[in-house]
Amino acid sequence: MGIPLPGEFGERARGILAGQIIPVPARDAATVVLLRDDPLEVYLLKRKATMAFAAGAYVFPGGSVDPRDTDHAVGWAGPSPAEWGEAFRADERTARGLVCAAVRETFEESGVLLAGPGPETVVADTTGDDWEADRLALIDRTLSFAEFLDRRGLVLRSDLLKAWAHWITPEIETRRFDTRFFVAALPAGQRTRDVGGEADVVAWMTADTALARARAGEIMLMPPTFHTLTEIAAFERIDRVFANDQTITTFMPSAREHDGQVVLDVPDIDYRLPDVTRDSA
What CDD domains does the record point to (predicted)? Predict the structure, then answer.
C-alpha cells in the first residue's frame, strides 16, 4: 500500500508527479553504522525536534560531504578512493569525499575517530579540551578535515569502514541527500560521548531493540535506518557483519497515486512508520 502522504506534503507530491514542481537535487552524504560487540549494538542519535530534516528521528552519525572532503591532502591509509568508487559505483573524487565525510561526521557526532598515526594504528583516546576544540572547529567549518589530520599527524583509516548501502531521498522532499551507508566498529580504547549539537539523545542498543521500540511507537526511525537495522539484526558479532558479502543496492522511495491518495513506496518496510511522512529518507 505504501506510506500515506497527507496534507501539504501530499500536494507537493502531486505537483512533482504532474511535472509542475522540479525536484531539488540530492547532495552527497555519508552515514556510518557504528557497532560494538557483546552484545552487538548500534549507536543511534535522536535528532532535535527543531532540525529541518528528520526532526525527532533516531539516526546513525552522518551528514553532507564538505567540498573540502575531496582534498587530496587528506592523509589516507587503507583501500583507495578508486576502490571505494568501485564499491559505490561513484567516481574517484566523489568516493574520496564520501569516505572523508563518513570519518569526519562520525567524529563530529560521536567523538569516535577512525584514524591513527599510521596504517596499523588507531587513536586510543579522543577526550580532552583540545580534541573538543578541534571537533567544534570541524563542525563550524573553520577547520578542514585535511588540516585536522595533518595538525595531529594522523591518517584516515579507510580499512576500518565497510560499504553497506545506498539510499537517495525521494524526489518529493525539499531537502534531498544521496547517501552512502558504511559500517564501522568502535575502535579499542575509544568511547562515544554525548556531544550535543544536532542530537538531544544518544544511545547504544541492539538492532532488535531499536526495531521493537519503533514498531511500538516509542521511537521514530526513517525507512533507511529501519531497513539497515533489520539487516544488522541478522548478525551476532561485528566480525560477521564485516565478513558478509554485502550487495550495494540503490534505493529511492517514490510517490504514486493509489485510490485517490498519494502514497510513498518504500522497499522492504513491513510496518507503518509513525510520523514519517515528513522525513522519509
Answer: NUDIX_AcylCoAdiphos_Nudt19
